[in-house]
Amino acid sequence: MSNTIDVDILRGIFAARVKLAKKTREEAAADAIAEWDVTQKWVKSESEKEGSFIWFCDEFDLDISAVRRAIREKRK
Hints:
Layout: H1 7-21, H2 25-44, H3 53-59, H4 64-72
């Protein structure tokens, strides 16, 4: 496997896909809606703790307001 690919990330993706495949379509849809709700709160949060939206923006050197605006405007 290429050294540029993080094996732990690939394991996580694989495990998530297997877990999703075990659900019914309705269960998966309900989970997606719940995750969307959590994500909306995460984006709007002013927390700066590790793992927060602001923390990620800082880690990637992104303008927080610009990213939030792009999300609101549904830009890519």
